[in-house]
Amino acid sequence: MVPIEIREVTLIYDTPDGKVPGVKDVSFNVDASEFVCIVGPSGCGKSTLLNIIAGFLTPATGEIRIGGKPVSGRGMDRGVVFQDFAQLFPWRTALGNVSFGLEMKGVPKAERERIAREQLRLVKLEKFTSAYPHHLSGGMQQRVAIARALAYNPAILLMDEPFAALDALTRDDMQRLLADVWQKTRKTVIYVTHNVAEAVYLADRVIVMTPHPGTVKTEIRIPLSRPRDPLSAEFIEWQKTLLRELGQDENRSTGIGYEPTT
């Protein structure tokens, strides 16, 4: 596992109305095996920042370092899970999707299928190895996406609102599954979310970003023991703390499925 350093990162988009900053002067560190959530208003650059860390976008200024080495593009040290169910290959089975990265690395077929089956077992889909994506529910497809991201053993897992399109009950199940997977694998995770309760449930630390152009407003460590009880008074108090930082009304419902209006 390797630490991540984000140093004074700024990205500027060229638009018909001129240059628009996506994120501005963003700096923070992520420790090895730490689970960090990034929250903030819509348009503050959360996904932009994740794409810079993934190597999909190049910042105008600043840099990302992983294990002390500058990020200059995509790398097998980072696994990425998006919100969109279409991230899976529809012509491949669950097993075929999970083994894809290993296939690209040249891992022999028997070995990559063994690893893929292990990862599907980790996300509780060992009975669906031969199922195609259109045979699977949204939550099951996201489990396959997580298994695929883990299969080639990246040090870092980058997740961009992976459960936002799921219904509330499925999302709660997926949050519990992810927390369990993280505790078993101890990957370094950076997780983008609009969901305050989700951040409190999952994160060791939460990065709160300002409205556009996004920069870091504050960092909040969540000292709750695991597994976390979303109905406990302590859990709700930490949600209220985040809501205050986001400028939201803390008297609103703060159940585990709550998403602040942004």
Please sum up the structure shown:
With 262 residues, the protein is α/β, with parallel strands linked by helices. The chain has helices spanning 46-54, 94-98, 100-104, 109-122, 138-151, 168-185, 196-202, 233-246, and strands spanning 4-15, 18-30, 35-39, 61-66, 69-70, 78-81, 156-160, 188-192, 205-209, 216-221.
Rg, nearest Å: 18 Å
> Overall 3D geometry?
globular
| Largest sheet, strands/sense/barrel | 6 strands, mixed
Proportion of beta-strand residues: 15-25%
The N- and C-terminal alpha carbons lie at a distance of 34 Å
Mean pLDDT across every amino acid position: 89
Structural classification: alpha/beta
**What are the segments in which pLDDT stays under 50 over at least 5 consecutive residues?**
250-262
Approximate helicity band: 25-40%
Q: Can you write the helix and strand succession as a string? A: EEEHEEEHHHHEHEHEEH
Strand order across the largest sheet: 6-7-8-3-9-10
Total beta strands: 10
Number of helices: 8
3D structure, described in words:
- This protein is of the alpha/beta class.
- The chain is 33% helix and 24% strand.
- It has helices spanning 46-54, 94-98, 100-104, 109-122, 138-151, 168-185, 196-202, 233-246, and strands spanning 4-15, 18-30, 35-39, 61-66, 69-70, 78-81, 156-160, 188-192, 205-209, 216-221.
- Strand 9 and strand 10 form a beta hairpin.
- Helix 4 crosses helix 5 and helix 7 packs across helix 8.
Write the layout of secondary structure elements.
Elements: E1 4-15, E2 18-30, E3 35-39, H1 46-54, E4 61-66, E5 69-70, E6 78-81, H2 94-98, H3 100-104, H4 109-122, H5 138-151, E7 156-160, H6 168-185, E8 188-192, H7 196-202, E9 205-209, E10 216-221, H8 233-246
Parallel strand pairs: 3-8, 3-9, 6-7, 7-8
Antiparallel strand pairs: 1-2, 1-4, 4-5, 9-10
Helix pairs in contact: 4-5, 7-8
